[in-house]
Amino acid sequence: MDIKTELRNSKLSNLPLLASQVVEGFISGIHKSPFHGYSAEFAEHKLYNTGENTRHIDWKLYAKTDKLYTKKFEEETNLRCHFILDQSASMYYPEVSAPSVSQLDKLSFSALSIASIMQLLNKQRDAVGLSIYDEVLRFQATEKGSGLHYNMIYNELEKSINSPQESSKTNTYQFLHEIAEKLKRRSLVFLFTDLLQPDIPRAELFEALRHLKYNRHQVVLFHTLDYKTEVLFEFDDAPKRFFDLETGSKIDLHTHQIQKEYVEKMSEFIQEVKLTCAKYKIRYIEADIQNNFEKILSTYLVEKQKLKS
């Protein structure tokens, strides 16, 4: 199911509500996906095993699915999840007049992805934390599982969508090191960034990513991109003026004049990031903002199971 189509006219003014709709759409299609085995987890059910007490069988769910599930009441979890969000100016690309689920920039796509994963974490009352940075560390909250804490994080995500920091640069290198030092207990760590920080050597950026593995954290890098324009460099033939959102510099050109060279350089960079992540056992996910949220939520499910195993 294409969540963007279903919520075409929704605005990002009530992030928890939109996130819950994203999750509901994902669940409704999960039986058709390779992840159908995880669908019971969302509803806080588990498959009934022969010999178990039948008292907690959900007969209403049996009528709908023709499968026996028992309600989960006693499962305890100590899962901790920390989200890291790059809020630099380049994350507000492409320009959209009013972000909606059908029209997202990289920042709003990332914020809604985080909110959707939080919907799943909240079902098990797992602890969540959040760090937001650009050229400074804008917000940081340690992992907690209370409803008040969840609401505070939703509010901060909405604020990041609606209050862009004009011409803010990226300081991924510095703040990944700082955040890694503060994550003491083993956690799921989800980083949403476009990795655009040309002012430092790549080796230093990769070293900051490696630091996130400190204390055996399960780390996922969601490389957030508008794939069509930022990777394939596909535009119409009219001359274009390109602005650097973080420095304000600009250049006029016909895109076809440099498209081949641009695509080669970008592909080289992405491949280097993938290889580095593989080296450090970091899960690399290419997050195209023109796609729906299935890849994001499916990745969460897989990584959660790895952390528990």
Structure characterization notes:
- The chain is of the alpha/beta class and 309 residues long.
- 42% of the residues lie in helices and 18% in strands.
- It is built from eleven helices and ten strands.
- Strands 5-4-3-6-7-10 form a six-stranded mixed beta sheet, sandwiched between helices.
- The longest helix has 25 residues, at 255-279.
Spatially, the strands of the biggest sheet line up as: 5-4-3-6-7-10
Mean pLDDT, to the nearest integer, reads 83
By secondary-structure content and strand pairing, the structural class works out as alpha/beta
What is the ordering of alpha helices and beta strands?
Answer: HHHEHEEHEEHHEHEHEEHEH
Strand content: 15-25%
Q: Please tally the β strands and state the result.
A: 10
* Largest beta-sheet details: 6 strands, mixed
- Residues in helix, %: 40-55%
Which stretches are poorly predicted, pLDDT < 50 over at least 5 residues?
A: 1-11, 35-43
Distance between the termini: 30 Å
Q: Number of helical runs?
A: 11
Q: What would the principal axes of the Cα set say about the shape?
A: globular
- Radius of gyration (Å): 21 Å
